[in-house]
Amino acid sequence: MRKSTAGELFQESQLMNVVLHQSTDGHFAILHFHQGMEFLYVHEGTGIATIDRKPHPIEPGTLLYFQPFQLHKVEMSGSPESRYVRSVFFVNPVIAESLLQPFPELYAFLQRLLRGRLSDQAFRVGKDGEIGRLIAQFREDVIRLPKSHVQEESMLFFLQLLSRLRKSSGQAESSVETPRSPHHVEKMLEWLELHFQEPFSLQRLSDFVYLSPYHASRLFKKHTGLSITDYLNVRRVKEASKLIATTQTPVKVIAGLVGFQSDAYFCKQFKHITGVSPSHYRRRLT
Asked: Can you give the residue ranges of the HTH araC/xylS-type domain (predicted)?
C-alpha cells in the first residue's frame, strides 16, 4: 500500500487503482472526470452527486458509478468535525473487457456500464448489505496485501462486485444498449485530453470531429452540461491540483504547465472549482 496526500492510501494494479480516502475538514466539493470507470463507495458522510445534471443523494452505504469521461460533481456537506470516508476504484476498461471475455452475461453488463445510458448510477447497497460488506472487507484486506498479490485479489474483487451489482441493479435483463452520448462528444473529450495543456483552438477541435465550430460547441454543451471553456478549466485545475499535491513546483509555474495563460485567471478558476485557493490547497496537504 502506498501513501500519497494526507488521508489517502493507494494500491495499484493493471486492472484497478484503489484509493482509500478520509477527509475531516468539513465541506468537500469537486467537479471532475476520469478516463476509466470509477466506482465510489461512501462509508461515512452525506451529500449530493451530480451526474449529467441529475442530483443523486449520498449517504453511508451509497455506491456511485461514473462512466469513462463522464463529468460529475461530488459535494459533501458537514461540519469540520464530520468525516467523509470513501473507497474509490478506478478500473481500466481494456483490462476489464479482457478479464470478462469468458463470462458472457457479465461481459454484456460491463458493456452497458461502459457505453449505455444508465437509468441510475447511485446504488443504495447499504453498509450491511452484500455489496457493502464485500467492499468493506476488500478495503480492510487491501491495506495489508503485498504487491505481488494485488493484481489477483483486485480481479477477484472486481468479478464479485460486478456480479452482485448486476443482480441487484436489475439492468441485466435488458439486451438493448442505448448509447449515452454521440460519438462526436467522446471524440472531442479524447482530443481535449491530449491537448488541454496547449492553447485552445476551437477550429482545431471542430476540424478533428468534422463539425462546424458552432455545432461542436452546442453538441458538447448539450451532452456534458458544460461549455468547452468550462470543461477545459476543470481539466486543467484537476491536473494542477495533482501537481500541487505531489511536487514543490511554484503555483505560477504550474498554471502555465497545465495550460492557463494568466496566473490570476488560474487562481480564480482553481478557487471556483475546488473551493480553496492553490496556496491554501497546498497548505492543507502538509
From this structure: 186-284
Domains and CATH numbers, the chain: 2-169 (2.60.120.10), 183-285 (1.10.10.60)
What would the pLDDT profile of 46-74 be if each residue is shown by its tens digit?
Answer: 999 988 778 999 999 999 999 887 878 88
Of 250, 259, 242, the closest CA to residue 4 belongs to 242
Cα torsion through 60, 235, 93, 177, rounded to 10: 80
Q: Which residue intervals of 9-71 are DSSP H helices?
A: none
Task: Output the nine-digit C-alpha cell for 147.
Answer: 504487491
Closest Cα to residue 57, out of 116, 123, 113?
123
What angle is formed at CA 247 by the lines to CA 250 and CA 21, rounded to 5 degrees? 125
Query: What's the gap between Cα 76 and its chain centre?
Result: 15
Residue with cell 481535449: 192
Q: Are 36 and 110 in contact (CB under 8 A)?
A: no
Model confidence, pTM? 0.70
Residue 173 C-alpha cell reads as: 435483463
Would you state the pLDDT for residue 4? 44
Q: Which residues of the chain have pLDDT under 70?
A: 1-10, 23-31, 78-81, 170-182, 286
Determine the distance from the C-alpha atom of residue 77 to the mean position of all C-alpha atoms in its chain, rounded to a whole number.
19
Nearest to 176 by CA among 107, 111, 240: 111
How many whole angstroms separate alpha carbon 172 and alpha carbon 177?
Answer: 11
Instruction: Check residue 175 and give its pLDDT.
Output: 41
